[in-house]
Structure formats: structure tokens, C-alpha cells
Amino acid sequence: MTTQSGDSGIRPSAPPRRRWWHVLFPPVAPVARPTGWVTYRHDVPAPLLVPAKGDAFDFRLHAVYSWTAQNISYDELRFRAERYLPWAGGILRDQALDLGRAHEPHRSHELEQALNQRLANQRWPRVGPEPHFGVQVRVIPDERVRERLRPYWENRIWMECEHELQKIRARQVDELTRRWCALLQSMEDDPVTSHAARLTGDDFAEVFAHYVQERRGAVPDLVSLLREALQGHSDLGMGPSEYTEAWDAALRTYQRQHGLAEQAN
């Protein structure tokens, strides 16, 4: 009787055969190529010079390029962007040259707006699989122009600050005047306050006394004017009327308000 061993008869496959040169040069596994879109923002430190109107001064263009590519690594895109920088700078200069000469040397802000509006939604190269870029710029005037503009802006800033300060002072004076006017009128109507005013200080009492004296000094003149107007209508023989009665009522009220009723009688 024969017995069978536990071996099923299937032998495992042999490991791959190593060559002798694999010891010196091990095989390298293939690297998978990236997929999808990659973006690199390239902020160029050196400005690009573009002549201003009259060609006596230059505008300084600080460019920020946005590079985009597909199916390459970020490092490879950055390498290509730095390699293509002279070509990209030439395109930017061509786009900015005519606009720069149309703007005066101190109009850098207007040039910046016009140039960014022209560059918006544009890409270079426009076709092909190569990496492409868009660009935005910041425009600074020539340093000599900035030196000449500095005194102008210093004076303008000082004038605007002084104007704002004067408006604040005017508002405060107006508010203070209104409050003093209301206070003095309320104190004049109360006979007790002429003595109570001394409690606040001699200066205030003196000012208040002058104020009341001037106001009372103007009253007799007004009373005389009203009386002459009232008597004038009587001299014309018009007799009692709504007009004369109104004048008479106004006269009596004013006399009574300022304590002149006894003087008038």
C-alpha cells in the first residue's frame, strides 16, 4: 500500500532572476507622470521700464505672472517660467509701450488701470500645449517724478487736515452757541437767576449782567417804534381795527414780558 505526501504537486514560481549588473546599477521603477492642472505665481522683483509721455521719464512696471500648465510637475513649471521670463517680459513691454507714451509721467495710477484692463483675460501663448501665462502689473512713477510730487502731496495733506479740523471746530462752536443761547434766555426770564448766576463765578455773572443790560436797552427803542405805529393809525382817523388792535396787543405783551409796563404808563 502506497501513501501520498501532502504535496499537491504545484510548485511556487521562482523569483525573478537577478543579473550581475543589477548589483552595480539597480533598476529604477518608472515614475508616474503628474496629471491635472498646475499653477505657478511668478512675482518678478526687477521692474520693467516703459517710457512715459514725452520720453523724459519712465514708468516702472512690476509684473506678476500666473503660469498654468497641464500634466507636468510644479518644479518643472517653475523651471520653464523662469526660462521663458525674457519672452514674457517682451510681450508685456509690447502691450504697455503705446499706453505708457499716452500717459503723463505723474499719471501712473491711470496707466495701471488702463494696462490691467487691457491684459485682463489674455493668455500667452494663445494656442498649443505649452505652459501659458497671464499677467497683472503695478505701475510706479519715475523716482524723479516722485520727488517732485512729494511737496504737492505734503501741502494737500496739511490742507485737508486743517480743513477737517476747522469743520470740527465750527460744529463745536455752533453747538456751544446754541446751548449758551438757550441757557441765557431761560435765565433772563427768571428773576431769581440774576442773583443765582453769581454762584457760578464772577466772570459768568459779569457776562450775564452785560447780556441782560444790552437786551433791556434795546427794548425801549422797540416799544417807541410800536407806539408810534399805533398812534399813527389813530391820527389818520381810522378808528379801532384789527391792525391797530394787533399792534396794541403786541406792545402790551412785550412791555409786560420785560417789566416795562410801569414805564410805559
Structure explained in plain terms:
The protein contains 8 helices and 4 strands; from the N terminus they run βββαααβααααα. The protein has 265 residues and is α+β, with helices and mostly antiparallel strands. A hairpin with a 6-residue loop joins strand 2 and strand 3. Helix 2 crosses helix 3 (108-119) and helix 6 runs antiparallel to helix 7 (242-257). The chain is elongated and about 135 Å long.
| Bulk shape | elongated
Largest sheet: 4 strands, antiparallel
**SS summary, helix count:** 8
**Mean pLDDT, as a whole number?**
79
Helical residue percent band: 40-55%
**Which spans have pLDDT < 50 for at least 5 consecutive residues?**
1-6
What radius of gyration results from the CA coordinates? Answer: 48 Å
Distance between the termini: 164 Å
Strand content: 5-15%
Order of helices and strands: EEEHHHEHHHHH
Structural class: alpha+beta
Number of strands: 4
Secondary-structure blueprint of this entry?
Layout: E1 37-43, E2 48-51, E3 58-70, H1 74-83, H2 85-101, H3 108-119, E4 132-140, H4 143-189, H5 193-196, H6 202-235, H7 242-257, H8 261-264
Antiparallel strand pairs: 1-3, 2-3, 3-4
Helix pairs in contact: 2-3, 6-7
State the main characteristics.
265 residues, alpha+beta, four-stranded antiparallel β-sheet, 8 helices, 12% strand, disordered N terminus
Short note summarizing the structure:
This protein has 265 residues and is an alpha+beta fold.
